[in-house]
Amino acid sequence: MNRIPVYSFVAYSGTGKTTLLEKLVAELKRRGLRVAAVKHDAHDFDIDHEGKDSWRFTRAGADVTAIISGEKTAIMENRPLDFDALINKIADVDIILTEGYKYGAWPKIGIRREATGNPLPVPADECLAVMSDVPENTDKPCFGLEDIGGLADFIIRDIGWGK
Questions:
Q1: What is the dihedral of CA 64, 65, 69, 73, to 10 degrees?
Q2: Is 70 a domain residue?
Q3: What is the tens place of the pLDDT at every residue in 116-152?
Q4: DSSP label at 116?
Q5: 53 within a domain of the structure (yes/no)
Q6: pTM higher than 0.85, yes or no?
Q7: Pairing mode of beta strands 129-132, 142-143
Q8: CATH code assigned at 126
Q9: Furthest-apart CA pair in the chain: how many Å?
Q10: Which residues face 8 on adjacent strands?
Q11: What is the separation of C-alpha 117 from the centre of its chain, rounded to a whole number of angstroms?
C-alpha cells in the first residue's frame, strides 16, 4: 500500500484543471516537495512514435516497454493497469496529484469556473476543498482559481509536510 498522499483535482473539461495543476506543481516544487502528477485520459493515447525502437518492441507484443536516458525514464504498460496499482508503483515523492479521478477514494479538490456553465463535478461535501471564481455554498475551505499559494499552504498543512 502506497503511503504517499494523493489528491485528485476534479472538474469538467475546459475548467482549467491542467493549468491549475501546472501552477501548483511549480509552487510545490519551489517549496521543496517532490511531486508526481498523474493524468487520467478517457481516450486511447499513445506516447510512443511509429518507427522508433520502443514502438517496435510494443508492436511486437511486449507487455511493458521502457526507454531510459541520462535525464528521464518512461515505462509503458502495454496493458490496462488499475489506478491503485499505478499509484503503488510511484516512489520517492512527497505527494501525488491526479487530474480527473473523481470516483477514487482520495481527497478531492473540486474546481469550478463560472464561464463554463458547469457546477462542481461532485458535491462540495465530497471535496476536501473547492477552487472557484464564484462563491460556493459549502463549509469546505474555498480558494480562488488564482490562489495557488493558498492552496499549496492548505495541502502542505494537510499532509503535515516539513514537521
A1: -40
A2: no
A3: 999 999 999 999 999 999 999 999 999 999 999 999 9
A4: G
A5: no
A6: yes
A7: parallel
A8: 3.40.50.300
A9: 54
A10: 98, 108
A11: 23
